[in-house]
Each structure stands twice: as structure tokens, then as C-alpha cells.
Amino acid sequence: MNSPDEAPSLLFSGQKLLLVDDDTSLLKLLTIRLRHIGLQVEAAESATEALAMLPVFNPHVVITDLRMDEMSGMGLYEQIQKTRPTLPVIIMTAHGTIREAVKATSLGVFGFITKPINHLELNEQIQKALKLHASLFSSEPSEEWRKDIIGQSSLLEGLLKDVYHVSQSDISVYIQGDSGTGKELIAQALHKASPRKNKPFVAVNCSAIPEELLESELFGHKKGAFSGAIENRKGLFELANGGVLFLDEIGDMSPSFQVKLLRALQEEEIRPVGESQTRPIDVRIVSASHRDLKQMVEEKLFRLDLYYRLNIVTLKLPSLMERPEDIPLLVDHFIKQRSKRVKKISPEAMEILLGYEWPGNIRELKNVVDQACAFATTALIPASLIENALQKKNLSMSSFNEARKDFERDYLIRLLKLVGGNVSQAARIAKRNRTEFYRLLNRHMLKPVNFKPKK
């Protein structure tokens, strides 16, 4: 491996690295040297700036200083974990904070390197991190597993990378998301990407089955076990044997049945109602809920031991309002599904859809588009049909003052993505003048040029 003073050998070829340090001189020096070896580098002088750049730049690896003002390197790592849990993060630290760095690695940080920086060691760390990233995501055999998931937003792409990564193991996965965000579609995608893809995928909505029938539905029953049991019947666990059992709305399961489910998962066997013998099962459990299971555990409504059994990995689904750039793609998909006569939606109608809050998420969007298609008399859906479907009077995008302060950065990022970095258009939608809008962008260290379409 070449030293930094030798001619560049381009060890890397275009992989993207986000570098974070409040020491501007070191930041500039490292940026030059890392670009010198072929990396595509973006530099941030604070964790706040880094978080603003993350969804736009989509790096393969992050290198951050440990000690920084406002938010530390560990604080940045914790924020990255919320949306990009598989993104490798390397911590830079002075000798006096090595103990903290070692603790950081125990919490999931990919690695750490001490200052002054040994560039050979840094190159090796980067190579290992990029190799990990490639092993997680570059080996996807095809896109078939995800073909039913519509969208191209960075939030969705990050989620799908995590889906593929966890699909390769057999661990239990818990999917949390609001109603209508597509939890079952994500569970199906996880199954299609997994080694169990040729085995059954069986889904059950736990809230739709009365408690007295849930045991029979999941575990099966013997003929005569209860009134109405006129024949032996296999339960969903047996029907899913070798494959995946998707337990939707797991949070609605009664405490008494939670005990029975926990026992089945611990023992890897079930006992049909009315039988004395147990039967072994080989099933991967994927569960989901629109409710916050962690809060339910705190309120003693959900068993802690079952929570840990189900929640080895959590996949958090974004709401539709968090990924507005996917709305045009979804609308086009739903129109093609619903109607041969209707071809597209008018710009005015699309503007209404982009400004609506979508409490029902993708399911609500589909219903609105389906209704508009049903009443459309031309190939173009007008704004009036969308307004009627939504049954709202004021459908314009909320002014910036109405957005909660804690979500300012996310609001601005979504807005800049929506208009492709056009500040005039973004300021007009947010109902701010250009000067004030630039002040807001500067507060969150957002650069409009980063959101412009790549040529």
C-alpha cells in the first residue's frame, strides 16, 4: 500500500466518504489526501452539517472526530443509526480519549483511529469498511425481490438495503410503521430475498381474529377439540414450516396468548388444540405493528421477554410525508394498475397530492387515485377530482411556520429534494422570502447545490 507521499495509486475508485471534523485545517488536509487516493469525499465541519448532507450524498462510509462542539462523534453515530444502521462509521480520537473510542466500538461503531493520523492505517480502515458495505449490499443477485416496492427516495433505498441485509440471516425481525406504510410488502420482500424464498410465506392479522380462535388458527386443532372442529386442521405455523410466518398487528395480541406464543418460539414446537403431543416447527418470525411495542412493554401491556424474542432487529418504515419524492412514482404506478383509459395526472392535481399530509399513507394515496380514475372522463386526471377524493378545502402545503421546530431540517431537506435545489420555488412553497429562506438553510448547513439533479 502506498504512503501518502507517493504517487497516487487510486486505491479506491469513486466510493463515497463523508468526513466530519470541527478542526477545519485537518478537515481540508484529510479531504485532499483521501481524494488523492480515489475517494469521492464530502466534508462537514459539524455533526449537524453531516446529518444534513447524509440523505443527499449517501456515503458508503463515515469518518468523524469524537470530540466536537454541539454534537459529539458518538452523538452523530447514534443519529445515523436511526436511519442507516448498517452504514460503517469510523471514529477519530486523540490519545486521551482512546478509552471512549474502545467503548464506542462495543456499541457498534465500525472502528477508531488515533490522532495524529497514520494514513496507512486509515486507508486500511477505509478498505475494511468499504468491503463490509460491499458485502452487505453489492451481492444482491437481482432486483426481483424488491420489484413490488415503488419509490427511489434515499429513505426507502436505505430501508431496502437493511431489508436485504437482515434477510440473509434467520433472526426475527420486527417492522414498525404507521397504518398504510406497506409493512406486509416489506415482509414479503424480506422473504423473497432470503434463503427461504422457495418456502411458504404465510401472513396473519392478529387483530382480525378473535382471541378464542387465535390459538387454533396459529397452532391448528384436532377433530372434536371444540364445538365446530369437524376435522383435523393444520395451523399457520405448520403451513409456514420452512418459510416465514408474518404476524401483523402483533401489539393487539392478548397478554394470555402472548405467553403461548412465547413458549412456541422458545421451544420451537407447537401443540395443536386438543392434542397431547407437540410438533417441531422451523419457521422464521416476522412481526409488525402500528403501535409502539416498547411503550406497550413499559405500560405492562406487552411481555418484555416476548418483545426481545421478536425484536432482534427493528425495521422502521417511513411515513409517506417523509418520502414525498416517491409520490409521483406511486401515482403513476396506481394509475397503470387501475385504468387503461387514464394516462396521467395534471400538474395542478399532483401539486395537491404533494401538499397533502397523508395520515393514511400509501393505502390512502392508492384509494384517492383509484377513485379519481373511476370518475375521470378523460386521459388526464384534473385537480377537481383529487379535491373531491380528499374531501378537503385547504390542500396547499403547510407554511414553514406550521412545521414543528424539531423537524425543520427534515422539512427543508424534503422541500429541496422536491424542487431539485431551486431556492426560489422552495421559498415560495414554504412562504418565506429568499433572504429568510437562505438564513434557514444556513442554520441547518444545507447547500441547495447538493440537491440539484446530477448532469
Q: Architecture of the largest domain, CATH level 2?
A: 3-Layer(aba) Sandwich
Work out the number of β strands: 16
Principal-axes shape call: globular
Computed over alpha carbons, the radius of gyration is: 25 Å
Low-confidence region ranges: 1-9, 393-403
Number of helices: 19
The rounded distance between the terminal residues' Cα atoms is 34 Å
Strand content: 5-15%
Q: Average pLDDT value?
A: 85
Proportion in helices: 40-55%
Structural class: alpha/beta
CATH class of the largest domain: Alpha Beta
What's the main sheet like? 5 strands, parallel
CATH topology of the largest domain: Rossmann fold
Superfamily at the CATH H level of the largest domain?
P-loop containing nucleotide triphosphate hydrolases
Order of adjacent strands in the largest pleated sheet: 2-1-3-4-5
Number of domains: 4
Task: Describe the fold and architecture.
The protein is of the alpha/beta class. The chain has 4 domains: 16-137, Response regulator (Rossmann fold); 145-318, Rossmann fold; 321-390, Helicase, Ruva Protein, domain 3; 400-451. Helices cover 44% and strands 13% of the residues. It has 19 helices and 16 strands. It has helices at 24-36, 47-57, 73-83, 98-106, 119-137, 154-167, 183-193, 211-219, 236-239, 255-267, 293-298, 304-310, 327-338, 347-355, 361-375, 383-390, 408-418, 423-430, 434-443, and strands at residues 16-20, 40-44, 61-65, 89-93, 111-114, 173-176, 201-205, 220-221, 233-234, 244-248, 269-270, 279-280, 284-289, 313-316, 344-345, 380-381. β3 (61-65), α3 and β4 form a beta-alpha-beta unit. α6 crosses α7 (183-193) and α13 (327-338) crosses α15. The longest helix has 19 residues, at 119-137.
